[in-house]
Amino acid sequence: MTDRDRVRYVPIDILKAAAIIGVIWIHSFHRWGPPRFALQPLSHLLTAFAVPAFFFASGFLHCGPAASQGSVIMRRAKRLLVPYFVASVAALGYRHFLFHETITVAGAFFDLVTGSAWGIYYFVPLLVGAAVVLPLFARSQWVAIALFVVFSIMALACELGLVPLAPFWALRNPAWWWGYYLAGWLAATYYGRVARLGKPGRHLIGFVILGIIVIASTCTLFAPPRVWPGPYGAALRYLTIYSSIAAIVFLGFDASSRAAVRYLSEATYPIYLYHFFFTYTARQLSPYGELTTDLLALILGAVGSVTIVSLGRALLGRHARLIIG
Fold first, then answer.
1. CA dihedral of residues 280, 285, 288, 294 (deg, nearest 10)
2. What is the separation of C-alpha 89 from the centre of its chain, rounded to a whole number of angstroms?
3. Helices 174-189 and 231-252: angle between axes, nearest 10 degrees
C-alpha cells in the first residue's frame, strides 16, 4: 500500500467522477464520422479530458515511497487485470450470443491483449503498463520530468500527424497516455506547494485556466469543421485536455467531500468496464431516432453500470473490488 492509498484527495475524487460521467456521455453521443449536430465538435473538446484524467489520477495516487516495490506493483496489476479479464470474457460472450459475432480463439486472444473485447477497453493494457513500468523509473523527480517531456513531445507529434499511425494503434500509443500518468505523478509531488498557495491563489489559477478553456471552446464554435482533423484541432485538443484536468484540480481543491462524488470516484473502473454493455446495446437495438437513442444510451449506461457495481458489491462483499473492479 502506498502512502496515498490512506488519504482522500477531494480534487482527485471530483476529477474521476467528472471523467466517468464524460466517458458515458462520449459513448452515448459521439460517433465516428462527420459531426451529427452543431455542437458536437465542442462536445468532443470538452469531454476529451475523460480518459486522460484516469491516467492522471492513477499517476497521482500511485506516487509514493512504496510505489516501486514489487509487492505493491503486483497487487496494483492484479486489481486492474482480474476485473478487466472478467469483463472482457463477458463482453466476448455478449457479442457472440446477443449479436451473433464469430469469436475465434485467436481473435479472443488478440482482443484480450490489445483491449478490444469492447473497443473502449484499449486503455486498460496501457494503464497496466504505466502502473507497472513507470514507478520503476520515476523514483527520481528529474527522471519523471524528463520522461514526461519526452512522452508529451512524442504524443503531440503523433497528434499533429508527424508520426502517422492507424487509428487502432494511435489509441494504443503509450507515448500519448503515459504522459498523463507522469503528469499526475508529478502533480502529487507538488501537491504540498499547491496547498500552500492558499484558497485565493488556487482559485485565481483555476479561473485563469478556465479562461483558456473558454477561448478554446470559442475557437471550436467558429472554426470550420474541416480544420479539426488537422494540426490546429490536434493542438487545441491537447491544450484543452491538460487545461480541463488542471482547472478541476485547482477549483476542486477546497471543495467539501460528497458521498455521491466519492461513490463515483471509487467505482470509476467497474463503471467504465460495464457501462458499454448498455450504451452499445441501446445504440444497436433502439427503434427510435438518433437523439432519443443517444439519450437512452446515456441513461442505460449510467443506471445499468451503477446497478452492476451495487449488486456486485452486495453479492461479492470484500471480493468485489478484485472481481469487478
1. 0
2. 21
3. 30
State which amino acid sits at residue 34: P
From start to end of 69-181, where are the E strands?
A: none
Distance CA 105, CA 108 (A): 5
DSSP letter (8 states) at residue 166? -
Positive or negative: CA dihedral 107, 110, 114, 117: positive
Q: Supply the pLDDT for residue 166.
A: 81
User: CA 304 to CA 309: how far, in whole Å?
Assistant: 9
DSSP string for 163-203:
S---HHHHTT-HHHHHHHHHHHHHHHHTHHHHHHT-HHHHH
C-alpha 60/C-alpha 54 separation (Å) is: 10
pLDDT band of 55, cuts 50, 70, 90: very high
Long-range (24+ apart) CB contacts under 8 A made by 219-226 are: 220/41, 220/42, 220/45, 221/39, 221/41, 221/42, 223/41, 225/34, 225/35, 225/41
How many other C-beta atoms are found inside a 10 Å radius of the C-beta of residue 29?
23
82: number of Cβ within 10 Å? 15
Residue 27 has pLDDT above 80, yes or no: yes
Task: Report how far residue 267's alpha carbon sits from residue 20's, in angstroms, rounded to the nearest whole number.
Answer: 9
Mean pLDDT across 51-79: 88
What 3-state class would DSSP assign to 31?
coil
Q: pLDDT confidence of 58, banded at 50, 70, 90?
A: very high
Q: What is the pLDDT of residues 279-311, one digit of tens each?
A: 999 999 988 888 899 999 999 999 999 999 999
CA count, 13 A, side-chain hemisphere, 164: 0
Q: Which of 118, 122, 126, 114 is nearest to 274 (CA)?
A: 118
Alpha-carbon separation of residue 323 from 20, 125, 269, 310, 317 (angstroms): 20, 17, 11, 13, 10
A 10 A CB-CB count for 163 gives: 14
pTM score of the predicted model: 0.92
Structure-block grid coordinates of residue 92: 466476448
